[in-house]
Amino acid sequence: MxxxxxxxxxxxxxxxxxxxxxxxxxRRVWGIIIIKLFIIIxxxxxFFFPDFLxxxxxxxxxxxxxxxxxLTKSK
Amino acid sequence: MFENADLSxxxxxxxxxxxxxxxxxxxxxxxxxLSFIVAIMESIYVKTxxxxxxxxxxxxxxxxxxxxxxGVATGIILEFEFGTNWSNYSWFxxxxxxxxLAIEGILAFFLESTFVAVMFFGWNKVSKKFHLLSxxxxxxxxxxxxxxxxxxxxxxxxxxxxxxxxxxxxNEMVNFWDVLFNEVAISKFLHTISSGFLLASMFVxxxxxxxxxxxxxxLLARRSILISGVFGLLSxxxxxxxxxxxxxxLAKAQPVKFAAFEALYEGKQNAGLVAAGILKESDKxxxxxxxxxxxxxxxxxxxxxxxxKGERDAFxxxxxxxxxxNQSRGIMSVSEKIDRGTKVRNMLEDYKTARxxxxxxxxxILAGMFRDKKFNDENFRYFGYSFFKSPDEAIPDVxxxxxxxxxMVMLGFxxxxxxxxxxxxxxxxxxxxxxxxxxxxxxxxxxxxVAGELGWVLxxxxxxxxxxQDLMPVSAAVSQxxxxxxxxxxxxxxxxxxLLLIAEISIMIKQIKIGPKH
Lengths: 75, 518
Known about the structure:
The structure holds 2 protein chains of 2 kinds. By secondary structure, chain A is an all-alpha fold. Chain A is built from 4 helices and no strands. Chain A starts with a helix and ends with a helix. Chain B is mainly alpha-helical. In chain B, the strands form 4 sheets. Chain B has a two-stranded antiparallel ribbon. In chain B, strands 3-6 form a two-stranded antiparallel sheet. Chain B has a two-stranded antiparallel sheet with strand order 4-5. The radius of gyration of chain B is 25 Å and the shape is globular. The model of chain B has no long low-confidence stretch (mean pLDDT 89).
């Protein structure tokens, strides 16, 4: 069991020590990364960038019919 | 062009995509190039055991880390935009775009979560050789990651390896290797990564010049200039070579774009390459589009024919030939392409009606035609022209294409000169005395960014009106959403990316002022 846990623990310690001993710029960019990911993935994706076809149609067939309609609309 | 498309919606959607892509490209090329420079420096450290090389490596690795971290995930927004603003396009391209982007995502995830961590956290914790291997893997991985994005982009410039399925209204990949080894993809990948190498070399040269101007970190600066000078010179030569390769591929796949960036209206043999020139709109028109004349130009006789097809006598088609057609040269007119595209569109309409009427026999016959290679080569490849009202809609903005191309090329030659002078002064031992050169090098830090962005403006605006060359114009690709929502997100992005850029520049400047600490 110890032999199984050991590599995972070593990887955990590697990251843990790395983050703990980060320099000032490392801490700052990690702060920026977290804020940025929150804005991009949570705020922008959820509230501003819904998937247009997914929101409008339930099935793949409906989506393809809609696109076919768009492609064959008059000039 | 596309009756139901609101022009301001198309323009705002394009502007938003351009803004996001331009900002994203401020971070990417430095990652592509600096990762290799850092790996080269670390290799010298591991080989020589000289601690000063370790210090140099760690300093540039810090700047690499700042840029990498701030730039991470800025490209995801482009994917959001596909689903929201460009849903017709996203559906129409099917898995062709999805597959390379998925590979890129997986590659980027493994790269970022493992080897970048070893690069930054692994000093004195893993062996020197494993650390070096991680640095090289980050460099190779970052560039391979770019490959998949560029393969996807190249498919838009030269769609190959697919068939259109009218049942799903999607293009389906039938030959992955055709997509991967698309001539435009190869040339675009090599040209883009070498421009990233060049940019990073100039970045290192400029900051090293700053230290020499300030008379501090002399050894770090001299060694960094040695590496960046040699790497930069080789990269700039590679940029020129791959640019030529890229132009040859464009001449075949996107001849109108090629003619536009040379402002070549009348095709000719022994065509000259315009080295520099100024355009002005003339009274002549093609349809409703004004023709540009040269106020002045410096031309190298016969060089465009040689660059395009390797012979002086080769015929290079101009915009007139490509729009009006030139039977003697076997060039089809846009009017003929509109007719062929319209034929395909009518067939799609028939297919839709047959499906609605449950006429499966007729629907199957029509669907079978879309699988036929001859039909695809002779008709479907011109499908996008069916959205045109007049042939001149096939002409991009010639002035934008001409100036972006020529400015980019001029900057390319300036970079060669700068890297050459850096090496020359360094080997003569007079670098620190050449204060003018150090200032020029410092002031040049932004120029490769300008050149890179110009390259993208040329690539994307030069191929207008297409989102997928000959298959789909941008006006047919947009989602039917309100332009107000696109304007809102445009402003949000402008604020978000500007803040990120300010954060990067301020952290970077602070770190450069501190200098290497280790």
